[in-house]
Amino acid sequence: MSVFKKLRDEYVIWHAHRIELPTFVSSTLLRKKVTFSGRVQKVGFRLEIHCIAQRMNLTGWVKNLEDGSVEAEIQGEESKIDFLVKCMQSLKRASVKKVTMIDLPINEDEETFTIVR
């Protein structure tokens, strides 16, 4: 791992843990496929999603797509998913131009949030 990537990853983890999480009102459990387009690769985007999702006890996965976008399947309470998406749209080191969300069936067996490489 390059020195730059190591420093970036440390910064991303630090930043993700500084985000103040609101008190979430209990809401419907659901699963969404979310695609973020824009300048979202090589800026720690997947790691940031991963860290925030874990803090909020969301499950699912996130991965880079060949077209330069980032795709995630996120499962949890609707209010938490909405908060995570808004956090990612507001990142200064990325530039989210478009977000698409599709409802998916719940995956009952899923227990963690992972980064797919």
UniProtKB/TrEMBL annotation:
One GO MF term on file is: acylphosphatase activity
Q: Give every Acylphosphatase-like domain span.
A: 31-117
EC no.? 3.6.1.7
- PROSITE patterns found in the cross-reference section: ACYLPHOSPHATASE_2, ACYLPHOSPHATASE_3
Q: Which residues form a coiled coil?
A: none
Active site at which residues?
46, 64
Source superkingdom = Bacteria
State which residue ranges cross the membrane: none
Gene3D superfamilies with a match to the protein in the record: 3.30.70.100
Which reaction does this chain catalyze? Answer: an acyl phosphate + H2O = a carboxylate + phosphate + H(+)
Tell me the keywords, alphabetical order. Hydrolase
Family, as annotated: Belongs to the acylphosphatase family.
- Return the protein name: acylphosphatase
Where does this protein come from, organism-wise? Lederbergia citrisecunda
